[in-house]
């Protein structure tokens, strides 16, 4: 859910870039002696679509935030689960180290040259 | 209106500010772009000379283009502020992210512990076999302190008691019973003699 909203905001950023790019393309085309009417129409439609999309998306995000924001800090944490997981990984690592030592000891005992 | 929320003044002010910035920036982009398009039209009659009018139009277009770019950058800043506000204050998604992360960490911990337990069981089986081999050979001796695992299982089988372990606290009780148990100890499964009886 959080990723969807953040992804939507990243799409809005791309749309803003498209708006500026379309504006620049239109003005560049108008600066020429012979205008390509179809290109102008396409770019203008794209410009209007993008700017409407930017406005509507940002308005809806602000509306959503008005509904869910409480002004209080969030006090949730994943600390306990992270600690438990870290302890489990430490147990596994310790077991691995001990088994490694046991293996080396067995190899030393079995190796006739040492 | 029945669902109107009472936000702290700072948060409400902040969100109103975001709305205002959005409206202003969009309005700025549209107005400046429209004016640039209008200025691009070549007028037949001008109040000043053509060169002056062209220079004025050139300067105006520069300023309006800069305004469009500034409004675009202001919108990008607004999007960045909204992202930050969303991450900090969107409690439903923060709760979901926390619970998802907790689930992942707990699953990893359980898998780790499950693998350690299965490893322990495998090593216990191997240890049982090794101790059986060692203590039933001529090299193996009991020092009376720790009960080997194979003997634990043998005694458990002979008594029918599920609670015998190689715990030192039990070994003292079992030491007193050892002379009797040694006489009644069954033959080793591999056919080795009861070497401990011979040694004692």
Automatic annotation (TrEMBL), chain A:
Keywords: Activator, Nucleus, Transcription, Transcription regulation. Its main location: nucleus. GO terms for cellular component: mediator complex. GO terms for molecular function: transcription coregulator activity. It is found in: Nucleus. InterPro entries: Mediator_Med11. The keyword Chloroplast does not apply. Gene3D superfamilies: 1.10.287.3490. The keyword Nucleus applies. One of its GO terms (biological process) is regulation of transcription by RNA polymerase II. Component of the Mediator complex. Component of the Mediator complex, a coactivator involved in the regulated transcription of nearly all RNA polymerase II-dependent genes. Mediator functions as a bridge to convey information from gene-specific regulatory proteins to the basal RNA polymerase II transcription machinery. Mediator is recruited to promoters by direct interactions with regulatory proteins and serves as a scaffold for the assembly of a functional pre-initiation complex with RNA polymerase II and the general transcription factors. Belongs to the Mediator complex subunit 11 family. This is Mediator of RNA polymerase II transcription subunit 11.
TrEMBL record, chain B:
InterPro entries: Med22. Residues 161-172 have a biased composition (Low complexity). Its main location: nucleus. Component of the Mediator complex, a coactivator involved in the regulated transcription of nearly all RNA polymerase II-dependent genes. Mediator functions as a bridge to convey information from gene-specific regulatory proteins to the basal RNA polymerase II transcription machinery. Mediator is recruited to promoters by direct interactions with regulatory proteins and serves as a scaffold for the assembly of a functional preinitiation complex with RNA polymerase II and the general transcription factors. Keywords: Nucleus, Transcription, Transcription regulation. The gene is MED22. Residues 158-200 are annotated as: Disordered. GO terms for molecular function: transcription coregulator activity. The keyword Nucleotidyltransferase does not apply. GO terms for cellular component: mediator complex. GO terms for biological process: regulation of transcription by RNA polymerase II. Pfam families: Med22. PANTHER family: MEDIATOR OF RNA POLYMERASE II TRANSCRIPTION SUBUNIT 22 (PTHR12434:SF6). It comes from Pygocentrus nattereri. The keyword Cytoplasm does not apply. It is found in: Nucleus. This is Mediator of RNA polymerase II transcription subunit 22.
């Amino acid at each position: 859910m959080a990723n969807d909203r953040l992804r939507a905001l990243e799409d809005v950023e791309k749309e803003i870039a498209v708006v500026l790019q379309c504006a620049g393309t239109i003005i560049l085309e108008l600066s020429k002696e012979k205008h390509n009417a179809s290109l102008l129409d396409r770019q203008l439609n794209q410009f209007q679509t993008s700017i409407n999309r930017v406005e509507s998306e940002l308005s809806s995000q602000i509306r959503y935030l008005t509904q869910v924001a409480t002004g209080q800090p969030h006090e949730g944490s994943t600390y306990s689960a992270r600690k438990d997981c870290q302890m489990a990984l430490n147990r596994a690592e310790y077991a691995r180290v001990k088994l490694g030592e046991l293996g080396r000891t067995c190899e030393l005992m079995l190796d006739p040259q040492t | 209106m029945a669902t109107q929320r009472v936000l702290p003044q700072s948060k409400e002010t902040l969100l109103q500010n975001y709305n205002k910035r959005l409206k202003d920036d969009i309005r700025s982009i549209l107005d400046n772009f429209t004016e640039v398009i209008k200025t691009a039209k070549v007028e037949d009659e001008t109040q000043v000379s053509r060169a002056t009018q062209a220079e004025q139009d050139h300067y105006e277009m520069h300023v309006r283009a800069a305004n469009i770019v500034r409004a675009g950058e202001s919108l990008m800043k607004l999007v960045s502020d909204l992202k930050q506000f969303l991450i900090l204050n969107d409690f439903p998604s923060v709760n979901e992210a926390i619970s998802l992360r907790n689930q992942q960490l707990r699953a990893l911990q359980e898998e780790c512990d499950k693998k350690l337990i299965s490893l322990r069981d495998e090593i216990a089986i191997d240890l049982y076999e090794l101790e059986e081999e060692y203590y039933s050979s001529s090299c193996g001796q009991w020092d009376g302190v720790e009960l080997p695992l194979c003997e634990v299982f043998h005694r458990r089988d002979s008594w029918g008691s599920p609670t015998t372990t190689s715990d030192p606290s039990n070994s003292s009780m079992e030491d007193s019973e050892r002379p009797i148990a040694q006489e009644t100890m069954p033959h080793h499964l591999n056919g080795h003699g009861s070497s401990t009886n011979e040694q004692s």
